[in-house]
Design a protein that fits this description.
alpha/beta, Rossmann fold, three-stranded parallel sheet
Length: about 160
């Protein structure tokens, strides 16, 4: 199996400039955020929505990667990890806590090995909204006045006091 990886610019300001052809022929998605940067976690919903809007459905294997584990020292980062695990669970994504700077680039290899294994499973191709049993339905997210999702970790949303 040959895997071609496309690394998109993760910052929010680049999201709308992602052109249509980036979304064509996508067979797997790895969402990566920086555990030391709460905004990068908060923006995951936008990227996930973006993928949905480009018809990348639940049949596409997805992984959620919480990177820079070597820098986790704050309570905020620990809370983000808990919330990220939960987010991955409700969206049926594999979850990884990684460090690209760890001694062996901890877990990084296994992200792609697991994704490749899942692709092998779905290759051949399981049609539309996946017949994997136990695949959870998309949760209903309430969008708050701030434009952020109410059940999303975000240090900018009203009433949030993580720190
Ligand atoms: N300590 C630590 N630093 C990391 C880790 N991963 C990346 N970095 C550092 O974080 C900085 C940004 O890394 P990039 O690989 O450019 O991040 P990116 O995800 O491509 O960023 P975008 O342009 O937003 O897509 C660099 O200085 C990296 O060396 C990690 O696991 N631990």
């Amino acid at each position: 199996m040959q895997i071609q990886l496309w690394d998109t610019a993760g910052q929010e300001r680049f999201r709308k400039s992602m052109v249509q052809h980036y979304y064509r022929n996508v067979h797997g998605i790895v969402f990566v955020f920086d555990v030391t940067n709460p905004t990068s976690f908060c923006n995951l919903h936008l990227w996930m929505d973006e993928c949905r809007q480009h018809s990348l459905g639940l049949d596409i294997p997805r992984a959620l990667v919480c990177n820079k584990a070597d820098l986790v020292t704050s309570t905020t980062a620990s809370v983000i990890i808990v919330q990220a695990r939960h987010l991955a669970e409700v969206h049926g994504m594999s979850f990884y806590l990684t460090s690209a700077k760890g001694p062996k680039g901890e877990q990084v290899d296994s992200i792609f090995v697991t994704l490749a294994q899942r692709l092998n499973l779905v290759d051949g191709r399981v049609p539309s909204a996946l017949s994997w049993s136990g695949y959870p339905p998309r949760p209903r997210l309430q969008q708050g006045r701030s434009g952020h999702f109410d059940d999303c970790f975000c240090d900018n949303r009203p009433g949030s006091s993580l720190g």
